[in-house]
Design a protein that fits this description.
Length: 394
């Protein structure tokens, strides 16, 4: 890199692909360090709008431009979805009026995506002119924002401070920053598509669950009540009605759980959300997604200390069932009244009860309950499997 020799800096798009960023003719080590730091920001957790704003500001600073802007094309390429500026005050922007629509030289950078350096922007044949109250802009450096041949917008810088026009070194630095912006935009859009597909998959699964569990249970309750109308035994009628009410209560809880799952993106973080996220995380290891039911005011009542212990217990219980019980079905019920009750049921091989001793895992679950003045027990399920009940005061 010494003496301005051509070289390459490397940047990743987060998908394993490395992009070579030219830094030819960049003799200033401070500028090169700042350039690489700006490029590497695409690997950070900064939101896209803030990242693009930082890229424009850094580009203006590195090439000594008075004004800068970055326009992002919408996915249909019919207009700009974002337009980030630097160098203009809010009042100046308001006086200028509507943002550019991509005509003139700015549009040229999309249709003919090559770097463009001009001593006088106004003399270019594609120059569209400036609206009223627009500041004077003469020297111009424009670059397409693109990745793998796809143009996402453009970065342009105007009014070189202390010079008549932008240099080749300026072009190299701006080109690297334009590439970083393109990678950031591409990553954001890919992540959005993945998120949408995940939501659609989840909604399909929830719809199947509603059909398989909820609708069938409601149908069974209806059949029971229909049979009840034919009975003359009052005691039997009351028993069947009470059971039907219990079944309907359980069905309502399942519907509420499904509604919360559908709205996970808008539900604030809380115990309910944490339980759903944990069961989803463990589903691949378990071989099936646990059926989760919530009863009572989950997020408004349970303290953080109890919630932290409960999540640790749930993880341990499901992990043990998945590793040792050979289960294929799991049910998790979280009930909040004047106490918090977590029940985990599996259809596995079960345990030899009574237990002759407890391993570290079960001992830890019991210890967590006792520290919170609660109880822990394991019982067999009639048709095979195990029920774990962990109960502590609110």
């Amino acid at each position: 890199m010494a003496n301005g020799a051509p070289g390459l800096a490397e940047a990743s798009d987060g998908l394993g692909t490395i992009y070579s960023v030219p830094y030819r003719k960049i003799d200033d080590p401070v500028k090169l360090r700042r350039l690489l730091e700006a490029v590497l920001l695409i690997e950070s957790e900064i939101d896209l709008a803030s990242l693009l704003r930082h890229i424009v500001e850094e580009a203006c600073s590195l090439v000594a431009a008075r004004y800068g802007a970055l326009g992002v094309l919408n996915e249909s390429r019919t207009g700009l979805s974002q337009f980030v500026t630097f160098g203009l005050s809010k009042s100046e922007e308001a006086a200028i009026g509507p943002r550019p629509t991509g005509r003139g030289v700015l549009g040229l950078l999309v249709t003919d995506p090559r770097p463009l350096r001009l001593r006088d922007l106004t003399t270019h044949p594609d120059s569209y002119g400036f609206p009223d109250h627009h500041p004077t802009m003469t020297s111009f450096l424009g670059l397409p924002v693109r990745v793998r041949g796809e143009v996402y917008g453009n970065l342009y810088l105007t009014e070189k401070k202390g010079g008549a026009e932008f240099s080749e070194e300026d072009e190299s630095m701006a080109e690297a920053l334009a590439l970083a912006a393109g990678i950031a935009i591409e990553n954001y859009r890919l992540n959005e598509r993945v998120r949408v597909l995940s939501v659609l998959d989840d909604r399909d699964r929830i719809a199947r669950d509603l059909h398989d569990r909820v609708i069938q249970r409601v149908y069974a309750v209806g059949m029971t009540l229909q049979e009840t109308t034919r009975s003359s035994d009052l005691a039997q009628v009351m028993t069947r009605i009470n059971k039907s009410v219990d079944d309907l209560d359980a069905t309502i809880s399942e519907i509420r759980t499904s509604i919360y799952e559908l709205g996970e993106d808008t539900v604030p973080a809380g115990l309910r959300r944490s339980v759903l996220e944990l069961t989803s995380e463990l589903a691949p290891m378990l071989g099936a997604r646990p059926q989760v039911t919530f009863i009572g005011p989950i997020d408004n009542t349970v303290s953080q200390r109890v919630a932290d212990n409960l999540l640790a217990v749930l993880r341990e219980a499901l992990t043990n069932a998945g590793k040792h019980a050979k289960a294929t079905h799991y049910e998790v019920t979280l009930r909040v009244t004047d106490e918090v009750t977590l029940e985990v049921v599996d259809n596995g091989v079960g345990l030899a009860l009574p237990l002759k001793g407890e391993g570290m895992g079960l001992a830890n679950l019991r210890s967590r309950a006792e520290r919170l003045h609660g109880t822990f027990e394991i019982t067999p399920v009639d048709l095979g499997g195990t029920r774990l009940t962990w109960r502590v005061p609110v």
